[in-house]
Design a protein that fits this description.
Length: about 375
């Protein structure tokens, strides 16, 4: 199996060294070259063939956003993974980069332990590099034996954990609450939904987007400005209200809880990671199934890696009148989470991302 060729772009000598070591440690990629700024990076790309670019957000001369814009204009199929620090406006810039076409991002760890830094980054990169390989496979490149084994193993795991004969629900006539799960590619998908959703959409929307702390707040602010619906980051004790969207904060599981006879509110937990993530859609969906038992729930599964959301949708269909929309493979950055729901027979409809906002309104209005 040929290894992925990676270009590392960072103005810090230390982080170029850390990123290079992390890339090599994945075992599936090589750090072919490095660059200290965007201008050098563009020159490197012109002269060589790369499979992935790791691109620092903040750099002198030509920063990460400017460099990403040029890469996507000239080499639209070249995957770019942003490398971001916490603090300042880095979260806002990173969200902007994702909306401009970056595949995903990794966080620069703050510990001074070199070995810990390298392992932290390498673990995240290994997952992303596996997805790059899968994307290449699905784009018609010759499949290699290792990747076929990965796909076969994932399918077997799914079949063992989730029955494939789950009955689909009838189309809803009205909605009490909307729940959405998203991961890699999610910020762009959510942006397309919220810039299109009707301003008179009056149902509460609860979202889990796999992101670390600080970045979910930036995403909520971005979506709040992008569309006509209010979007906030979840906090313990806030009420779930009509027409309001709440995004689970990074680092916490978000749950729906009863608060009085009819009211419902948000609760947060820092319990164990689920599917390697926190927040987890399964945790949110499970809680919604309990507190909205018997109600009309619209579940939407957007682009992302892994299987988060499958078990939650299954529970929603048992406890509620749940209608599930899966984002189409053609419009996903990563057709992982929607694929798992579809393969499990839990979906009621598959839609391109551009169709979902209109469909949400139609179902909410009782139009079948």
């Amino acid at each position: 199996m040929s290894k992925l060729k990676v270009l590392i772009v960072d103005d810090s000598i230390l982080y170029r060294k850390i990123l290079s070591a992390a890339v090599e440690k994945t075992g599936v990629a090589i750090a072919l070259q490095t660059a200290s700024n965007g201008n050098i990076a563009i020159d490197r790309i012109q002269q060589n063939s790369y499979d992935v670019v790791l691109l620092d957000v903040n750099m002198p001369e030509k920063d990460g956003i400017e460099t990403l814009l040029e890469i996507k204009d000239r080499y639209p199929k070249l995957p770019v993974i942003m490398v971001s620090s916490t603090g300042g406006n880095n979260a806002d810039i990173t969200i902007k980069a994702l909306q401009m076409g970056a595949m995903d991002f990794i966080i620069k760890p703050v510990t001074e332990d070199y070995e810990s830094n390298m392992k932290f980054v390498s673990n995240k990169l290994k997952i992303l590099f596996a997805q790059v390989r899968l994307n290449r496979l699905e784009q018609g490149k010759k499949p290699d034996e290792a990747m076929l084994k990965i796909r076969s193993h994932e399918q077997q795991s799914l079949q063992q954990s989730t029955p494939l004969n789950v009955a689909r629900s009838e189309k809803l006539s009205g909605i009490d609450v909307v729940v959405i799960a998203a991961s890699t590619g999610g910020p762009v998908a959510l942006g397309k939904i919220f810039e299109s959703v009707s301003k008179d959409f009056t149902k509460p929307i609860l979202i889990v987007q796999h992101m670390p702390a600080e970045f979910t707040k930036a995403l909520a602010d971005t979506l709040d400005k992008k569309g006509s619906l209010p979007v906030i980051e979840g906090k313990a004790g806030i009420m779930i209200r009509a027409g309001q969207t709440i995004i689970a904060p990074g680092g916490f599981h978000m749950l729906a809880k009863n608060s009085g006879k009819h009211a419902k509110m948000i609760a947060l937990q820092q319990t164990d990671y689920v599917h390697g993530v926190r927040p987890s859609a399964d945790v949110l969906f499970d809680s919604v199934a309990e507190v909205y038992a018997g109600a009309n729930v619209l579940a939407i599964i957007l682009t992302g890696m892994g299987s988060d959301g499958v078990e939650g949708v299954k529970k929603l269909k048992k406890k509620c009148r749940c209608y599930c929309i899966a984002q189409s493979e053609e419009t996903c950055v990563v057709y992982g989470m929607p694929r798992r729901v579809v393969d499990a027979g839990l979906h009621d409809e598959i839609l391109d991302i551009a169709q979902i906002a209109k469909r949400m309104k139609a179902i909410a209005d009782g139009r079948r």
